[in-house]
Amino acid sequence: MPTPPAERPPFRVPVGTAANPVLEQDVLARLMALGESEEFAVGDTLFLAGDEGLDFFVMESGRVDIVREATADSRARVVAEWQAGEFLGELSMLTGQASLLTARIVEPSRVRRIPNAAFKQLMSNDGELSEILLAAFRARRRLLMAAADRTTQIFGTEGSAAALALRRYAARMELPHRWIDVSTEPGRAALEASEHAGLDLPLVVSRGAVLAAATPLALAEAVGLAYRYRDGDEFDLVVVGAGPAGLAAGIYGASEGLRTLVLDALAPGGQAAASSRIENYLGFPSGVSGAEITELGLVQALKFGVRLSAPAEVTALSPREGGHELTLAEGDAIRARTIVVATGARYRRLPLERWADFEGGSIFFATTELEARTVARRPAVVVGGANSAGQAALYLAELGSDVALVVRGPDIAAKMSSYLVDRVRSHERITVHASSDATALHGGDQLEAVTLTSSATGASERVPAAALFCFVGAEPRASWLSGAAVDASGFLLTDVDLPAVADARRGPLPFETSLAGVFAAGDVRHGSMKRIAAAVGEGASAVASVHRALAAQ
């Protein structure tokens, strides 16, 4: 039986918009000079779904369809078409992700092909062109998040910690995907239609690949975002951790000519990505979400040629001639002349019975849209007394939840910014429980209530809660870095706080740990300020020391 034709979109991407900019003749000429013209016939493809390392294409004549291939429950669909004077491509050109789509010629065409390496050099060197292309790529990725969502389907149940981990990874990586809750009737029907109903959940179906009991790493490998060794891989700088400090270090390193790799055990963003709204960050007078800061930082890093892989968990570091060798959990070894550790810190778990049962399904350490959907305007408990807790309480309350904010100290003003304190105190849906602790959890498969106990009076009360959000304390993510000097809490000591000199030939450099050529920036570092702006500054400043260390090798 012949394959049915692809469904066509109801509109073309409008000319002159961010997603389809009109290129001035001199700009177009600079692009054309980098490639060679090729002729294509109807039915030819420029690339297929699953292809990697795509070249950049500019249409000189003819027309090409960008097609989302058919799935078990959906026909193939044309998500865009490009004509003479227009160019192909979106963010996967920079991330290294395998193509989600197929480019199929539908009219005899002449196409200018620009090799991938030349394109990446252009993005780093030509400020005007890179600005235009980046804006187009970001706009196109936003369109694809809806138009190409069926390229990757995640089946699972709402409240599943494993499913939420997949969804969080896909969201942070801006991976077009469709979430299907199989606890609903439509979700069960979709799972049956996929012909994979007997497999363990969460289940991922992506371009023909079927991943049972899927993890973020398995998904990353399926779409080409996991770290893979390339012949001759050796980096001037490897940044471990892709929060604000790590992304800043990556941007400054790559923009200053260093071969730079950024790794993260989960996904870019760090604790900042868990913040629903930040209003005291320079340059954003109306406030900005952690997710938006992460997206902008990630795109900026990719523009300068940073290689980024996530999830990629570093488990060990060992010295080698001319630098260091990092070992990943999967066994890969990465050679680096210098390293910036920007792994940040994690919030502490509370020592409560059944905590592990609820974590990931009803207990969270972030308040993004994903976690808020789980609460769905039901009551919630937020534990913590600093800015993250205040932001979380306000976000949930503004979405319709009654929030119990549990603060161990007697006054929320002790650690929280005053603008947040005023809003928390005045919000009708937020009740502040000062000098209190969460002391017991109650529920079946999901959390239903939390017992709060006053440290001042000893009195306890049980409050309804569909979820608990924990923002208490901080534990550094540095246990893998054996041999480095740390303080009593495990945070990395650097420069003037070191008990001994890292390199006998010179004094310790700013941000350098007790391991020569290994630097620390952001929340993982002893004495850091634990603010996004400070973390960005530390990441950038650490690269200045990286240059001095490289010059001395």
Please sum up the structure shown.
The strands form six sheets. Strands 10, 11, 12, 13, 14, 15 and 26 form a seven-stranded mixed beta sheet that branches. Strands 1, 2, 3, 4 and 5 form a five-stranded antiparallel beta sheet that branches. This protein has a five-stranded parallel beta sheet with strand order 17-24-18-19-20, with helices on one face. The chain has 14 helices and 26 strands. The longest helix has 21 residues, at 127-147.
Account of the 3D structure:
- The chain is α/β, with parallel strands linked by helices and 553 residues long.
- Helices cover 27% and strands 25% of the residues.
- The protein is built from 14 helices and 26 strands.
- The strands form six sheets. Strands 10, 11, 12, 13, 14, 15 and 26 form a seven-stranded mixed β-sheet that branches.
- β14 and β15 form a beta hairpin.
- The longest helix has 21 residues.
- It is globular and about 80 Å long.
- The N and C termini lie far apart (65 Å).
- 46% of the residues are buried.
- The model has no long low-confidence stretch (mean pLDDT 92).
